[in-house]
Fold each of these.
Amino acid sequence: MPDAFHAVGKATPRIDAVERVTGRARYAGDLRFPNMLYARVLRSPHPHARIRRIDMSKALALPGVKAVLTRENCQVVWSGGDTRNKRYLFNNPVRFVGDPVAAVATTDRHLAEEALKRIVVDYEVLDFILDPEEALKPGAVEIQPGGNLSPNSKGQREAESYRRGDVEKGFADSDHVFEDLYVSKHVNNAQMEPRVSIAHWEGDKLTVWASTQGISNCQADMAKDLNLLPEQVRVICEYMGGGFGNKNQNHDFDLMAAVLSKETGRPVKLEFTRKEDYIGVHGRWPTRQYYKVGVNNDGTLQAIQLRGYSGMGPYRKSSGDIAGTELYHCPNVEKTVHPVYTNMSVGANFRGPAYPQGIFGIESMMDHIAYQLKMDPVEFRLKNCTQKYHDEVPYTSIGLQDCIRRGAEIFEWKKHLHPPGADPGLIKGGVGMAMGAFGAGIGKSSATLRLDASGHLWVYVGVTDIGTGAKTTMALLAAEATGINLEKVHVVWGDTDRCPYSVGESGSRTTNMTGYAVVEAARDLQRQLKEKGAPQGNDVLIAQSTPNPRLEGAARYSFAAHFVEVQVNAEFGNVRILKYVAVHDSGRVVNPLTAASQVKGGATMGIGMALHEELLYDRATGVPINPGYYGARVMTHMDAPEIEVHFVETEDAYGPYGAKSVGEPPITPSVAAIANAVFNATGRRIKELPITREKILGVTA
Amino acid sequence: MKPISRRLFIEETGLGILSTTVLPSVTGSPVEAQVNSPAVSAPRTKITIKVNDVSHHLEVEDRWTLAETLRDHLELTGTKIGCDRGECGACTVLLNEKPIYSCSYLSVWADGQSIQTVEGLAHGDHLDPLQQAFIEHDGPQCGYCTSGQLMSARALLNHNPSPTAKEVRRALSGNICRCSNYNRYVESILAAAKRGQKHA
Ligand code: FES
Ligand code: FES
């Protein structure tokens, strides 16, 4: 009964929108302090090399150069930079083009650039490997001690695996067995705000103005890596210009700025160029996915097997998983994924980390099978889509079938669908669809509320609002839970000295976890109001909550189905998107305005990943050749189609007012939906991302 | 440009900045910036630029881009730098009413010219119709590209008050939004144009 709400479910402009449109919103890079130094990082030009010697004398001789850090004088370990091995701020050997070698702090930005040029590094160049499967072959150069297969979560040198049933039996029982390889590439998050960090010490208290997706985690990590108590570190992030997974926790450059600042006794601002931003930290891990699927004539799935390889770069920052097989109901499933060290840029979190590429694989595979069986791809999905997580654990709520049905109806799927490649013209029309999903966790965060006598409510939450509208969502939830008008609700955010712990804006969990804490704190406030009455004069009421709700044997997922109509030009190879319908089950939608923006943005990003984006490497030298917006061909106004957004609101017993996740789900089906539409148009399946003009011409010409 | 040796250029940069921690003031009547600097750093040139209708007499380093001068020396940080090499449009400002990438335009070239930045769009609390529409239609997600989108849109509406969606996309094709909120930006600009028509 959404009508029962006065704030939740109402399309509400962001509470900080004025700051965002007037230039008043202050991002970390906008700040300057008296006496501030400018820092830059020198990075390895080689994909793999041992450093014999670093000569800093010419750099240090420059007046205005205040400090130079290298492995020689700085042994700080960046614990979040590698979950398996010790990763220093400066490593020897260097293992990818972009691996930090030195950092300088100088009195002027341009001088910092000059100083970098004057650092002379003597490298002994080593063999390198870019491809994850190559890296596992005997005799391959060892990138990390112990071999190139990164240890699994138990620390064993084994692939990550999941099994249910018996796939061999499943294949034997199948009428058809299909096998294929799908390949995805390294793409960069390419958030608009380049990475930047400002560090400043007052006595033994460190303040970091970071561009981070999570101030609390950043604070904890900084303290851990610098051997400080958490209360000695203050992290501030008022506004930040996007991250999509690449600004979680703390980063090596935050630590470098802190060390340089300590060394020089002055505030230090460490800046990145766009090129560094593309190669220096991380992008989405590339994958190679071998599928084998057994199916009966009537479309019943018998077995799914996935053997996958993920290129993690030389440091294991993230899971490297290949998600998507869980979208299907099937008695026999076997998945083994090998996270492998390579000498490419690091592969780690990027919006929906394991999903868009994995769903591209499985949803291309299943689409293909549906057509082979002469089944409507929508019917095939409705028949086989997941009902329980891993066919075992119930979902807290599931609107996947509703998303598919509703999408098919709005899109007029039946009317548009034709056999693959049936359009004989040079401009070939086609339609495609895919399912999407994303795990929406739940857990611990805190919120503090303060109510004053004038009836104004202050909400203290450790969010940063990376563009999702999290601040506004928190305000709406607080308004809803207290009955106070939104205009009287003020959010205090983005500063660890002022805000309690929040999980951070990653994993699409801010609404769920921090929002849940806000609602719980509001309950506490209501209780106090009943007991003590409204505050008078200078009195205030303070309420707080740190709930830790558990899922109790249930899985919490957000679901989606995307439908797309394309025109493929068989002569020039370009793809035009004529219609795009995205239907989402995100539980209760707290703010339909910002939620729809998330869907539009995520779907559009996925289109870029499907059609254009790839960080290309020169195979001979291991050097990335197209870092930057232009080279990577990110989506522009001219490429972006209208994304039509719909929500099916499921009733979910968990999360604030039944809200699930919104931020990451939209990118999960979009890559596959585009790929499937291109197949329907051309009748030829392109199994390697991105689906560029050249590849299309390769199949149509 | 004045000839100067590279060595001198570097040394003086260091000295010049070391002794200059004073930030030029921004608002009000023309201000003389950097006069306190005893040492001349890098090659420098005196310029006069009008920014959001305020004249500034500045001595800028020849290598400073306009974006840098605006952000670091006039405290106008609403103009953002996304790539610093003419690929993204985050730094878009209007130079004599035409949109330019201020990261790819040297400050010395702007001598005698008139510049409008995002800070110059609103008059007091009175927002530009574009800003109002951006708020209502949820234009900014992270907001980092927003100033650039606004300035390109302002330039468009100045000479074409009622553009089609296609014309909006074309005019803003040089403004990347990685949050990919393109639909919202186009929607906002069309709404602002419509509102402008009503008031005209
Ligand atoms: S910062 Fe000027 S175009 Fe990107
Ligand atoms: S709003 Fe984030 S880049 Fe455009």
Amino acid sequence: MRTFEYLKPASVNKALALLDLYGDQAKLIAGGTDVMVQWKKRIISPQVLISLRNLAELSFIKFGGGLEIGAGTTHRALELSPEIREHFPVIHDAVSNLGSVQVRNSGTIGGNICNAAPSADTAPPLLVLDTNVRIASTKGERTVAIRDFFRGPSRTVLQTGELVTLFSIPAPLPRTGMAYSKHTRRKAMDLPIVGVAVLLSFEEDLKTCRKAAIALGVAAPTPMRAANAEAFLAGKPVDKTTLLEAGKIASEEASPRTTIRGSAWYRKEIIRVLVRRTGLICMERAKGAARS
Amino acid sequence: MKLTIGFSVNGDSVEVEVLPHWNLLKVLRDVLELTGAKQGCGEGECGACTVLVNGAPVNSCIYPVLEVEGKEVTTIEGLMDKSGRLHPIQQAFLEKAGVQCGFCTPGMIMSAFALLKANPDPTEDEIRHAIAGNMCRCTGYVQIVESVQHAAAVMSGRSQERAGKE
Ligand SMILES: Cc1cc2nc3c(=O)[nH]c(=O)nc-3n(C[C@H](O)[C@H](O)[C@H](O)COP(=O)(O)OP(=O)(O)OC[C@H]3O[C@@H](n4cnc5c(N)ncnc54)[C@H](O)[C@@H]3O)c2cc1C
Ligand code: FES
Ligand code: FES
């Protein structure tokens, strides 16, 4: 019979000890919205599942200058957090439209990032926020910048015996606007054909770009930053024209594939449009934040 | 190989023998004979299997059953009151033709139930956001949205004034 052992450690330390004990025979499971589907489809057949679902120490949203999010925090908890909505709307944009309420009640941000799908909706927001990923093992802790975390589709820098404990996000500069746009065939319950996160910080004139961060999902084997487009915007006045140019540059940096969801040229076209559109939302949000 | 776990279903404590790879839907339907929740896709896409765990709607087809240990599960069978009277949401689905073949209905109503508990007077957008994970191949959703709106009105005592307008 095809089955697995299902272990529910009472703490992160116990989970790490189990990871050491079982090595490659074990797989972590958080909300299971990827793991259970992959198991049913026979994509994975681990002998042991180590559950993180009930670990309160992995489930938190902590403000204080920046933001810390426990890896076991559900998308639904993030969606319902008024502080995330107000201060980190780029995260709210992504999680409030990820799967369904049912998926978001189980699925976690740690699972979304560690599953490392090119389409992971929370990856572009965490990328533009310069997030640091805290990783633990029985040997200790290490921190990896999220831009170095992904290694390919379904591949990350995580080694056997390691798990992600939290995402640490530095406080954004003053006069910052941030947003995520997801292009799908239908409004709900769909993976992005392309996902674009933009973060723009402005000088005091609320026009000149002090810092730009642009991240793309489903645009390459891993979620990526569009460094050339960012460099183009820095120091320039932000308007429809410069944003359109930034979109063009970003779409040139992207190397999307043709898949059943969309062809490569179409994805490039959408990136061009979405960078501009998302940048305009950032401008509005930065102005709104400056007014309040 | 079987393990015994305890949890609560619709207010009653149960103990069941399960295999570790079973999902909650299988145990509800095949062991506890609560066949209200349906299996459609079996992969989290359609919502026919929606039940509440500690009040939150989840896809029971991909919910590892060992995770409900010690928790409270609510299914469509738990909405009727003890005297056998339908819940106002169930009644509204009947009256407003929110049910056609009925396959999506138990899951749809559980999502609506969780919505109305948190938000007694939702907008149409909020209703559609809440049921986005419940597919219906029959109604085209219009009557479902109307059923939820009607249930919201009845449950918050606004039914009279609405009925007067119609
Ligand atoms: C119907 C449906 C719709 C979906 N729609 C979307 C969508 O719109 N956008 C989207 O991005 N995704 C979507 N998903 C995918 C999935 O829901 C998300 O990726 C979710 O965030 C996964 O989180 P989880 O907690 O369920 O992860 P799990 O399935 O438990 O785990 C996923 C992977 O991460 C690993 N893992 C989990 N936690 C940790 C940790 N702390 N440290 C190290 N490794 C860890 C696991 O070993 C596994 O490899 C959808 C899934 C379904 C079933
Ligand atoms: S049967 Fe569970 S979501 Fe379709
Ligand atoms: S009534 Fe038939 S699927 Fe909804």
